[in-house]
Design a protein that fits this description.
Elements lengths: L4 H8 L5 E6 L5 H8 L3 E8 L2 H13 L5 E5 L14 E7 L1 H10 L1 H4 L4 E6 L3 H10 L2 E11 L2 E10 L7 H6 L1 H6 L2 H21 L5 H23 L2
Parallel strand pairs: 1-2, 1-4, 2-3, 4-5
Antiparallel strand pairs: 5-7, 6-7
Amino acid sequence: MQLSKRLGAIASLVPEGAKLVDVGTDHGYIPIYLTKNHKASYCIASDINKGPLESAKRNRDKYQLSGIELRQGSGLQTIKLEDRMDTVVIAGMGGYLVHDILELDLVLVKTMRTLILQPQNNIPEIRRYVHSIGFKIAREVFLEEEGKYYTIIVAVPGVESYVKPCHYEYGQYLLEEGSDLYKRWLQHKQKGYADIITKLQTLEGNQTAERMSELQQANELIEEALKCMH
């Protein structure tokens, strides 16, 4: 079974022998891949919708896999403490939804050894939230697939907080790793802001001035982030 680049990256971050909950499992690709390759010891594939679970069941049965349980429900509501799961994957959802899923079942979340989160947006807020609930960021992965960019956050229990605002905005791990892809992405973002500022300079009005100030602050944050990469 061949996973997409994004799903493959998520699967590669799951600890060996994990008891995994895949929230919003869709077709069940991650649990199936991990079980088939003997990386996860047990998986619960969870989804709020019946359709994706039926698809996941067909895929599971196709490979004749045991050790994958399918449960329908919202977020982590399908999981009990007695299940003794130790790893959670929440991928492909908006940042605020990821936050709400974790917050709603915080007692359960705090029993986990690993959180693997791939929010589609509001990534800085997820970094802050992870720190606020007693987890530290052990690793981040930044990748590009079919013209889209994704950030995957791996969090483990621990106390951590970032001093620099750019570390929350752009990820201390990613900045210290300093990949060429991430640097190019930041520079592209910076140029986009600069181009908008140049256009706004020809306009007048309070709203224009406020927007320019916001963009200049955003650009300064990127500048700080790029300095952290050197």
